[in-house]
Design goal:
By secondary structure, the protein is an alpha+beta fold. 38% of the residues lie in helices and 31% in strands. It has three helices and four strands, in the order αααββββ.
Length: 115
């Protein structure tokens, strides 16, 4: 099974970058908690964009606690297989004790040849 950088993955990365920049422009200057939350969200999105397609089928979706800087975050994960050649990964990051500061990203992972 081979993987390629598909146009969908490239577009997903571009949309994530634009979303982060756009959100910053709308909200104005970010505080430390928002910067750290966004860093955790980017780190998790990059991880799930890089993991092998086959590994997504068996990845644990249990909540994970992540320490970044001065703050602790909870990462919730949902992975759904929309077809034999596509997974949709939703990553939700929440600061512990501040659920109103939650943010999320959705990635679509496809593979050209799923045997």
């Amino acid at each position: 099974m081979t993987q390629r950088l598909t146009p969908t993955r490239l577009v997903t990365a571009l949309i994530l970058g634009i979303a982060v920049l756009g959100a910053a422009a709308i909200r104005g200057p970010m505080d430390e908690l928002t910067r750290e939350r966004n860093a955790v969200l980017r780190q998790e999105a990059s991880k799930f964009d890089a993991v092998s397609f086959a590994a997504l089928a068996t990845w644990s979706t249990s909540d994970k606690t992540i320490q970044h800087g001065k703050h602790t975050f909870t990462r919730r994960l949902a992975i759904s297989d929309t077809s034999p050649t596509q997974f949709v990964v939703k990553i939700v990051v929440s600061p512990v004790g501040q659920p109103e500061r939650t943010d999320s990203v959705v990635l679509a992972r496809t593979i050209a040849d799923a045997r």
